[in-house]
Automatic annotation (TrEMBL):
Protein name: Family 65 glycosyl hydrolase domain-containing protein
Annotated ranges, domain Glycoside hydrolase family 65 C-terminal: 687-747
Name of one Pfam family that matches: Glyco_hydro_65C
Gene Ontology molecular function, alphabetical: carbohydrate binding; glycosyltransferase activity; hydrolase activity, hydrolyzing O-glycosyl compounds
Protein species of origin: Demequina capsici
């Protein structure tokens, strides 16, 4: 079954037939990763047609110059970007000197399949090269057991014709970023390392900004049956081994290739060769099938908690598993120096850096589907960068800490002013994640340790960023961009002001709960806390009494208000058809803005208020951010708008599989992929975690026979199975606990199933 280019399968994504116009799209969707490294679904043998060859290493980046003629004080000095790294999957194949290149040779029976259950990518096809017909089957996976290892297997069968077959597994370092200028190269080969071995070492070229240079070494072990080894070779940019020999119908060739990839983030360059040799030596103790089995077992362990099962809707089932698979391929918390970029390991757009998406959209999912250490790593990532956040604030002449909109190392590295230094609401999202972690785990140790240090500096930033209005006396925040990036430089964005007020109150309340010794260590004078209280109590929050809605910013209601339906069909998406000036002047909303606040702080507002705001803003929302649909789906679910919630869920879950935004060829929308989980678990399942504990208000979408998920909560694992009429709750692990289901309190104990009738 298929709804488009990709076949529908609950546990796999596959494509049959090769369409040259869609190769980049296929490469994005078939991307694989293991937290340490990742690559697009590129063809191992090479492809000379339209393609985006991309291999990326976690935490390896380059500072690109951003200084221009209109550079002002406070601008970032560079734009950080992920750099395309050594292509270690390459396997060149030729017959009588003619390469197997599916852009130039005919092929049939083409199928590419991503097995999400085990994280394995396979590709099969037949092709005719120099009068010889070959059948190829290629398999590869990036190990989640030993993340510095990659495993490949290539099978070649000769079906017709005779000729000389040549197979060359290699490491190719002559790679370029898609956005490089005039072919500029971000890597320089190091001639002193890797000599005499099937290894290559590269270092990022010098930069004038004092940021680290990264050294990367890739080393290869390969074995092949069916041909004779004819040469081992190396040059400045590549190293490989060639096997060749005459073949005829019935000839069979099998190649195994194992690659170790290490970086200077984890190993000093002078031990790279020894480290890769050890990794390859240990890997050689088991055959390919054993490593593949270990890979499947490791993924099975992840899926045991992370899986969401949907009954009766295979496209929806595939969509949610695809998003979870890609997220867990990108990040699983092993390294607190790392975070999650908008494209993960699947492309270079947005520079590959960390955005505010992590705390606002990804953190709740990781809290529920992984061990607490994974979420702790995300929190510690920000705490590690507190000095850099102070630097960012100081660049603007402000106290406290301003966490970056875009970063690799904590220093702001985005070059659009209206985003970089006006979209300051991201500071509040980081504070919110600290509260969410505390409520979800019941563990205050992070809050009272590293967390309060972050909160204090964020509160100081807000206290410095507000001003008191000369006309009304209220505290205001001017010159900001809210989550709706289709408006810039506005005054009193409601969401930003509300977040600032909440941070000041939450930080002050937390300080009052600490020991005298801890408060003394933090050195927050009483008068400073009193100032925070004054600001919070007198913060201006725009509200229109006539409409009964929170106003997005001071002048929003002065716009020509109209629903999205008023936009001519040929003008959508407007970001591809309208000038930026026209977009900024319009009323149209890129993603949740006021509604973002109602999502985060739903308990602060009545259902009637949320309903009025939803009915006012959603019709003007074009959902042209990949982050948009999911939060609207959650709110629609809470309001009983089940049909609308389902519409938005489908857009979120299959955004890339169905290429809704017509931009998936640039890479997957990784940081919005948690949206499908949020839509199901928080939306359809009605799950919320608050100071009063864990609660659910589930419903089963029309057309589904049911759905199920598990959540980790305060040392427990709870299984939830939602049916059309009732829901079953089961405590899988941990001590008995009370939860709220709709208006009732339900007691869960191990090995006891509690069934509750659905109310929503």
């Amino acid at each position: 079954m298929s709804t488009g280019i990709f076949d529908i399968d609950p546990w796999a994504v596959s494509v049959r037939g090769l369409d040259p116009a869609r190769v980049r799209l296929v490469e994005s969707v078939m991307a694989t990763g293991n937290g340490h490294m990742g690559m697009r679904g590129n063809f191992e043998e090479g492809y000379s047609g339209d393609s985006h060859l991309g291999t990326y290493l976690a935490g390896v980046w380059f500072p690109d110059r951003t200084r221009v003629g209109w550079w002002k004080n406070g601008y970032p000095h560079y734009f950080g970007k992920v750099v395309n790294a050594v292509n270690f999957a390459a396997v060149r194949i030729a017959v009588d000197g003619v390469p197997v290149d599916l852009a130039t040779v005919p092929c049939s029976d083409f199928e590419m399949r991503l097995d999400m259950r085990a994280g394995v990518l396979t590709r099969e096809f037949r092709c005719r090269v120099a009068g010889v017909t070959l059948r190829l089957r290629l398999e590869r996976f990036l190990s989640v057991v030993t993340p510095e290892l990659s495993f490949q297997r290539v099978e070649i069968d000769v079906l017709e014709g005779e000729g000389v077959l040549e197979v060359t597994p290699l490491l190719d370092g002559d790679v370029h970023n898609l956005d490089s200028n005039y072919g500029e190269q971000f890597w320089a080969p190091d001639p002193t390392w890797g000599v005499g071995a099937s290894a290559l070492t590269f270092q990022t070229v010098p930069n004038p900004f004092g940021t680290p240079r990264f050294t990367v070494t890739a080393a290869m072990e390969a074995s092949l049956s069916g041909l004779d080894e004819t040469s081992r070779w190396r040059d400045e940019w590549s190293v490989g081994t060639t096997w060749s020999g005459p073949v005829a119908p019935g000839s069979a060739v099998v190649l195994h290739k194992t690659v170790a990839v290490v970086t200077s983030r984890d190993h000093e360059p002078d031990v790279h060769l020894a480290t890769t040799a050890r990794l390859l030596g240990d890997a050689a103790l088991q055959d390919h099938s054993a490593h593949r089995a270990a890979q499947a077992a490791a993924w099975a362990e992840r899926w045991q908690l992370a899986d969401v099962e949907i009954l009766g809707d295979e496209p929806a089932q595939q969509g949610i598993r695809f998003t979870i698979f890609q997220l867990l391929s990108t990040y699983y918390g092993e390294d607190e120096r790392l975070n999650i970029g908008p494209k993960g390991f699947t492309g270079e757009k947005y520079g590959g850096a960390t955005y505010w998406d992590t705390e606002a959209f990804l953190f709740p999912m990781y809290m529920s589907i992984a061990e607490p250490e994974v979420a702790q790593s995300l929190l510690r990532y920000r705490h590690r960068q507190l000095p850099q956040a102070r630097h960012n604030a100081a660049q603007q002449g402000l106290p406290g800490a301003l966490y970056p909109m875009v970063t690799f190392d904590g220093v702001e590295c985005h070059n659009e002013w209206e985003i970089t230094f006006e979209e300051i609401h991201r500071n509040g999202a980081i504070a919110y994640a600290i509260r969410h972690y505390t409520e979800h785990t019941g563990d205050r140790s992070y809050l009272e340790g590293e967390g309060i240090e972050v909160l204090v500096e964020i509160a100081r930033f807000w206290a410095g960023r507000v001003h008191r209005s000369s006309s009304t006396g209220a505290f205001m925040i001017h010159g900001v961009t809210g989550p709706n990036e289709y408006e810039n430089n506005v005054s009193n964005n409601w969401y930003t002001n509300y977040l600032a007020r909440w941070v000041l109150r939450f930080t002050s309340a937390t300080l009052s709960e600490l020991s005298d010794q801890r408060r003394a260590e933090l050195a927050v004078p009483l008068e400073e806390r009193e100032r925070w209280t004054e600001i919070a109590d007198e913060m201006y929050l725009p509200y229109d009494e006539r409409l009964g809605v929170h106003v997005q910013h001071d002048t929003f209601l002065d716009k020509a208000l109209a629903p999205v339906d008023a936009i001519p069909e040929g003008d959508r998406p407007i970001n591809q058809h309208w000038s930026w000036d026209r977009i900024l002047r319009s009323c149209y909303i890129k993603q949740a803005d006021v509604l973002q606040g109602l999502y985060l702080f739903a308990d602060d507002f009545s259902q009637e208020q949320i309903s009025r705001d939803f009915d006012f803003y959603e019709p003007m929302t074009v959902h042209e951010s990949s982050l948009s649909a999911s939060l609207h789906a959650v709110l629609a679910s809470s309001l009983g708008r089940h049909e609308k919630a389902m519409e938005l869920y489908r857009r979120s879950a299959r955004l890339d599989l169905d290429n809704y935004n017509q931009d998936t060829e640039d890479g997957l929308h990784i940081t919005s992929m948690s949206g499908s989980w949020l839509a199901i678990v928080q939306g359809f399942g009605g799950m919320r975690v608050g100071a009063d504990g864990l609660r659910f208000a589930p419903f089963c979408p029309q057309g589904w026979q049911g759905f199920g998920f598990s959540v980790r909560y305060r040392g427990r694992v709870i299984s939830v199975q939602v049916g059309p009429e009732s829901t079953e709750y089961r405590l899988v692990e941990g001590d008995a606990v009370d939860i709220r289901v709709d208006a009732d309190v339900v007691r869960l104990a191990v090995d006891t199933v509690v069934r509750h009738r659905n109310v929503s």
